[in-house]
Design a protein that fits this description.
MetI-like fold, 2 domains, two-stranded antiparallel sheet, globular, mainly alpha, 2 strands
């Protein structure tokens, strides 16, 4: 009599091909997160976490007992008192108004100039466009502090050949006076960032299909007509992007006025919003009010960018 041995039926879970497919699926899902992990960790530590800490600090007040806090330090929730103190600072409010005026003039001039340069370099009659693109972009590679020092030699009397030549002609120039130093800073910023914004516009121009230009040529459109009717409408997204970046950068202005402060008495420690927050934190040692100022700067930048995007989207519709 022979014994019959029954083999148990193999389930789906015991199927080697099915389990291998599941492992490959899990690996394919986890692989992107493994690759993105270092970037996400740095992004959280260097961007998200400082924002959270700044917002949290803006609602706190640190009280120190004694001359140097040797008798104890207490931290308490201050609600919106830091924001009220920041808004009561007339110099801080004046710095925001000053940067709004700066942005209206400087951003408009810079966007118009970078658009004009991009259109000229991408025209059919342009000679050596690659060379001139590199030349115009070169100032962006110079750090803002170095650029300001270089330009200061053209602003300081006794060092500037421009002032000497104008003086010989009977013209008095004062690039560092109370009424002109803001536009001297605007000149530095325009010189630095026009080439950078031009490259963004050039990239948008290169994305225009060649068939569009051929159709315009068949219709007899000249260079001016092509620029006004084809190129400008199609590079509108690039112009919006560069304008938004420029609006945000205007409120972040810091290095140029801080460097020129050494040669221009018209620039005080709270000449721009960022310089005011820096002074509040490191000169007055009031980090909580400085955090409130930083949050207010971010809110103003967000509000201006949002308003500009709404206005441009409404015009497009």
């Amino acid at each position: 009599m022979s014994a019959v041995t029954e083999r148990p039926a193999r389930g789906v879970a015991d199927d080697p091909s099915r389990s291998g497919a599941q492992r490959r699926r899990r690996t394919s899902v986890a692989a992107p997160w493994v690759l993105l992990g270092p970037f996400l960790a740095l992004f959280v530590l260097t961007f998200i976490l400082p924002i959270i800490v700044a917002i949290g600090s803006s609602f706190l007040r640190v009280s120190r007992k004694g001359v140097f806090g040797e008798e104890g330090v207490t931290t308490e929730f201050a609600w919106f008192s830091n924001y009220a103190q920041a808004l009561e600072n007339g110099n801080f409010i004046a710095s925001i108004g000053r940067m709004l005026l700066f942005g209206v003039v400087q951003v408009t001039v810079m966007i118009a100039l970078c658009t004009l340069l991009a259109l000229l370099l991408e025209s059919a009659s342009a000679k050596w466009p690659g060379f001139f693109r590199a030349v115009y972009f070169l100032p962006y590679g110079i750090p803002g502090v170095i650029a300001t020092i270089l330009w200061s030699f053209l602003y300081v009397p006794g060092l500037s050949p421009i002032i000497d030549i104008a003086g010989a002609m009977g013209i008095e120039l004062d690039f560092l006076g109370a009424g002109t130093v803001l536009w001297s800073i605007a000149n530095i910023v325009t010189w630095t960032y026009t080439g950078y914004n031009m490259m963004i516009v050039v990239a948008q121009l290169k994305a225009i299909p060649g068939e569009v230009y051929e159709a315009a040529k068949v219709d007899g459109a000249g260079p001016f007509r092509v620029a006004m009717s084809i190129q400008l409408p199609l590079i509108r997204p690039a112009l919006i992007l560069t304008t938004v970046f420029s609006i945000i950068g205007t409120l972040q202005l810091f290095a140029e006025p801080q460097v020129l402060q050494t040669v221009s008495p018209a620039i005080d420690n709270e000449y721009t919003p960022n310089l005011s927050a820096y002074t509040t934190a490191f000169a007055y040692n009031d980090y909580n009010v400085a955090a409130a100022q930083a949050v207010l700067i971010a809110v103003v930048a967000f509000a201006l960018s949002f308003i500009f995007l709404r206005l441009t989207s409404r015009r497009a519709s």
